[in-house]
Amino acid sequence: MNLESIKTANTKYIGKEIEYFREISSTHTYAKQIALQEKHSGKMIIAEIQTNGIGTKGRLWYTGESKNIALTIILKPECKISSLEGLTVKIAECMQKAIQELYQCQLTIKEPNDLMLNGKKICGILTEINTISEKINYLLISLGFNVNEVVFSKETEEIATSLKKEYGKDFVREDIIKKFIENLEKEIEL
């Protein structure tokens, strides 16, 4: 993963600081452990492999080595919690727009937190907000996106897909991350 390429994204906050792991249990779990210590908004945790990635309803999210995107963004928004209503769908729309802009490929949103391609899941989104009363301590945005994976487990081969599986070519993960965080920073209040 070329972290320097990601840092060139046209953003003010998101992705300027990146913590990278070749292997980690879960980017989301790790981000949750350090989020209160972070002073600034926009730090990204990126991993090549997650051994215990968190999916919807506590399910495991598989991340194949150097093939997919597994990341968590730590944000410190200075807004009322009510302004974050519908946030997960906005995040999905940012990724949907990124893939459309980069590859003219149309993903569909399966609310509240999945992106689909040709009827199969390609991306899952997990958001978590930590608050005290109306004050937001932190917001975590975690994303698992199947980019270049072609081998899926027996449990998921009928319901999951990737860009490479659908189009038969490799895609640049860094380009997807950059376009996504550019869209995200424009869309949500920091």
Structure notes:
The chain has helices spanning 3-7, 27-34, 87-103, 163-167, 173-187, and strands at residues 18-24, 43-54, 60-63, 69-75, 108-110, 114-117, 120-132, 135-145. With 190 residues, the chain is of the alpha+beta class. Helix 2 (27-34) links the parallel strand 1 and strand 2 (43-54). Helix 3 (87-103) packs across helix 5. The relative contact order is 0.20. The mean pLDDT is 89.
Poorly predicted runs are none
Strand residues, percent: 25-35%
Name the quaternary structure: single chain
**What is the helix/strand order?**
HEHEEEHEEEEHH
Q: Please, what is the average pLDDT?
A: 89
Largest sheet: 8 strands, mixed
Provide a brief overview of the structure:
With 190 residues, this protein is α+β, with helices and mostly antiparallel strands. It is built from 5 helices and 8 strands; from the N terminus they run H-E-H-E-E-E-H-E-E-E-E-H-H.
